[in-house]
């Protein structure tokens, strides 16, 4: 048993290449497995540094508690992304095999189903990911509508007006209806716009933020 394990460890690349070659005709299954791997790696790369900064800046607790929170958020992001990519590639590949060709609706149906089951739980990580995608698809759909001539192509730059509208609405909501905003956004904007109005002397004007060591 130990000899077999040592043989596999020493020849893992040779064995792996053999298996990839043997099952090369099942590319969609292999792509799903590779998607599982990429989901874990990408989720960790994206979430860990973000959680590290946000938790240490804005959350209370001991060092151990903060690291436990960081690891929990990273695990949630990585596992959800891995499950989604794996399942999406599997369903999309299966639909292509079933219909015998690639159709645009395959992508939507596969992602719709797994979006419900993987990212449908209302937690902090899923909320952030879904909101991130929502902003991107809104811009993407507007560009697609212009490309397909559903709407006329703007003759002047519209990005400044887009920025003005976004910032006007978010500050209006924050100043007058703060409770409807996401908690992490509330914390960030409180630090920037409300706590910047509080000081008792030069020490907590320049070196510290009120009574917080920030």
Question: How would you characterize the overall build of this protein?
Answer:
The protein is mainly α. The protein has a domain at 1-116. Helices cover 77% and strands 0% of the residues. It contains nine helices and no strands. Helix 3 (27-58) runs antiparallel to helix 4 (63-99) and helix 4 runs antiparallel to helix 5 (104-119). The longest helix is centred in the middle third of the chain and has 37 residues, at 63-99. The protein is flat. The termini are far apart.
Key descriptive features of the protein:
single chain; 214 residues; mainly alpha; 9 helices; flat; Peroxisomal membrane protein 4; Pmp4
Strand content bin: under 5%
Shape: flat
User: Tally the helices: what do you get?
Assistant: 9
Would you tell me the structural class of the helices and strands?
mainly alpha
Organism: Mesorhabditis belari
InterPro entries: Pmp4 (IPR019531)
Protein name: Peroxisomal membrane protein 4
Give the secondary structure arrangement, pairings included.
Blueprint: H1 2-10, H2 12-22, H3 27-58, H4 63-99, H5 104-119, H6 124-147, H7 159-176, H8 183-194, H9 203-207
Helix pairs in contact: 3-4, 4-5
